Amino acid sequence: MGEEIERKNHFKNILYALQELNIAVTGGTLSVSGYSANATVAVGGVSMPLIEWPTGSSISNDFIIKIGEKRKSEGEEGALFLSPTPYSIGNIEYFLQYKITYLTHDDLIQGLRDRGEELLELADDIEREKNDILESGSYSKADIYGKLIEKVDSSKGKVSKKKSLEELVAAFAQDLNLRCVEVNKRTPSSEIDVRGNSDRSRGIWKALGTPIIFEAKNWEDPASADQIRNLAQKATGAKTRFMIAWSGITGKDELKGARLEIIKAKERGTFILVLTKEDFEKIASGVWPETIVEHRYYALIYDKIE
């Protein structure tokens, strides 16, 4: 009885945390192979079940497929998974296929702490409950990014390299808590490598807007002014566009090459944030993904593009 009450209190904490992070929570159920989701959330304007993974083990692809196929059979798509552990590389393909949004308890904790002092107690409660599930205490996404980087570097051929880089970028978009992440999204005028929605309205995220798109390029040479210009001119409806340039960009300073094109785009109201292999290596060493974005954002704002 005591364990049941504890579990209910934990779930109340989770629902409260989601609401504080601007994820609407409603009623509704979903039952798959004996597992029931007892809440529905609105993610990127799409209603979907909230499924909390109750153990410290990784979510299996078989379970993701069961959820995804169950939703398809109902004429719906998408689900929000919440877990005390990070995803595995093998999960990413199925997340994209079934439009799964993945949050860890640490994502909730970090988001609550970013909101201010009044939510620190709730963040501490969720962290304590997460640690009770894990028993080991904590985890890091570092090893996952290390493997994703290695996969990009070891891929052979244009198609394989593009797919491996898109997987890394899609994982990064999930870790930024973007919703409804899609790969190879086609619009009437453009093809977008990775796209996600943001429903956050605090800090730099208010300025970055929604949707947010990612252009994933695995050039051996730095990205050129033409490539930056093409990204800036894409008709995507996105104010913020990430250029994933594995070897950086051209121009020794902000008055030449690709750097100059980024400044010009900013003056026209379009933010282009460049991420390099080095940025992802920092995440693999333990830097929080959002810290990388903040660094790149403020470098752009103050015309100190690296």
Keywords:
306 residues, alpha/beta, Trna Endonuclease, Chain: A, domain 1, 2 domains, 12 helices, 12 strands, disordered N terminus
The fraction of residues in strands falls at 15-25%
Low-pLDDT ranges: 1-5
- Tell me the distance between the termini: 57 Å
CATH class of the largest domain: Alpha Beta
Report the helical percentage: 40-55%
Radius of gyration: 20 Å
Residue-averaged pLDDT: 80
* CATH level 3 topology of the largest domain: Trna Endonuclease, Chain: A, domain 1
Count of runs of 4 or more consecutive helical residues: 12
CATH architecture of the largest domain: 3-Layer(aba) Sandwich
**What structural class do you assign from the helix and strand content?**
alpha/beta
Number of strands: 12
How many domains make up the coordinates?
2
